[in-house]
Amino acid sequence: MSASLPSIRDVMRSAQWLAHRYDPNHDAFHLLPVPRERHAAIPFLTDEYLGDLGQPLVVRRAEAVEQARAPAPAHFLFHSAYCCSTLLAAAFDRPGVAMGLKEPVLLNDLIGWRHRGAKGPDVARVLDDGLRLLARPFAPGEAVVVKPSNIVNPLIPGIMALRPQARALLLHAPLDAYLASIARKGMWGRLWVRDLFGKLLREGMLAPLGIAPDDYLGLTDIQVAAAGWLAQQRQFQDIAGKLCDRVATLDSETLVERPGDSLAALAGLFDLRLDGSAIDAIVSGPIFARDAKSGAGFAPGQRARAAQQGRSLHGEEVDKVVHWARVLADNGGIAMTLPNSLLD
After folding, report:
1. 3-state DSSP call for residue 172?
2. Is the pLDDT confidence value at 261 over 50?
3. What does the pLDDT look like over 268-283, one tens digit per residue?
4. pLDDT at 301
5. Fewer Cβ within 10 Å of end Cβ, the chain: N or C?
6. What torsion, rounded to 10 degrees, do the Cα atoms 285, 291, 292, 296 define?
7. List of residues 6+ apart from 125 with CB closer than 8 A
8. Spatial distance between the Cα atoms of 222 and 224, rounded to a whole number of angstroms
9. CATH no. for residue 255?
10. Position 339 in a domain
11. Is residue 302 over pLDDT 60?
């Protein structure tokens, strides 16, 4: 290591050195220096937003774990996309209370590794070590709230088994709102749902929907989006049933309509010290007043107008696919409203 760099021990004891990637060929973690202020300024912990931080520091996995600072309590925001999860993760950047990590790529790497043939026990060992590194606290007494990308959802059972003290929120958008959101995003939204469809297919999550494989190519983009939503909804339903004492569910429309109640209930689930004044400050502050991804300010009623515009342009297609998806859900026993609601 260059003399200009801190020691491995100092690096691994600092949460500012983010465990960013995992390299299975060398069994090593790649770490980048990401100060807390940078976390707050960017929507995701991806190369797109971290690419100006220079070459990563590469540390062998065994050495990284051996030298790492003791982890903080870790909790999770799992989601099925386009449901205000980035906003919610940002709300937990509260010095002295918690830090929210927004889609660390390290966890995506493990899904990719598994798809390339990695064995389950090997993935589990690296997942355990990776979670330990992600949970290094910025300050004493803080918890860490991790919001993985939704492509990491197949690892939820493993994550919750490896962290028996962890609590989790399963966040989703109602189906019609989700489909309208995808439709109004145009080509990129439609490409994204097809990419997700392929990943869910490799995980075996589409088989229970009852769609014949020969019919996959005949599905419209919005049907593909609905199938992906149903597969994730089915998984969330199963997890909420099995881990009812550790997992709660919430939909994005309820979060937007009742942000204070949602944050208060979630702070209780995660055992975080957020009183009423702190929650009021978050809700009335900049986090809820801007687009969590672009950073652009929200004008009053802007979100509702955008949703209405999407329904006006694509309403006929969305309505027909919603009906089709509800038939699949009824046949497959998939609940459109998840159990274990965070709010009464």
Report:
1. strand
2. yes
3. 999 999 999 999 999 9
4. 59
5. C
6. -90
7. none
8. 5
9. 3.40.50
10. no
11. no
- List Cα–Cα distances, 281 to 36, 284, 288, in angstroms: 19, 5, 10
Look up residue 22 and give its amino acid.
Y
Q: Note down the domain range covering 251.
A: 8-332
Sign of CA dihedral 20, 21, 22, 23: negative
State the pLDDT at residue 305. Answer: 63
Question: CA-CA-CA-CA torsion for 249, 255, 258, 263, nearest 10 degrees?
Answer: 70
Q: Tell me the mean pLDDT in the region 143-158.
A: 98
Interatomic CA distance for residues 162 and 128, integer angstroms: 6
Tokens of 17: 């050195």
The first and second tokens of residue 270, run together, are: 């995660």
Q: Using only C-alpha atoms, what is the Rg of the chain?
A: 20
Work out the average pLDDT over 46-50: 96
* pLDDT of 54 strictly over 70: yes
Domains in the chain, number: 1
State mean pLDDT over 98-127.
Answer: 97
Q: How many other CB atoms are there within 10 angstroms of residue 54's CB atom?
A: 9
Does residue 97 sit within a domain? yes
Q: What is the pLDDT of residues 154-177, one digit of tens each?
A: 999 999 999 999 999 999 999 999
Q: Per the domain annotation, does 2 fall within a domain?
A: no
pTM above 0.90, yes or no: yes
Q: Which position has the token pair 């429309």?
A: 253
What's the CA gap between 140 and 146, in Å, rounded? Answer: 17
* Alpha helices in 220-301, H assignment, sequence order: 221-242, 252-257, 259-270, 276-284
The tokens for 176 are 């019609």
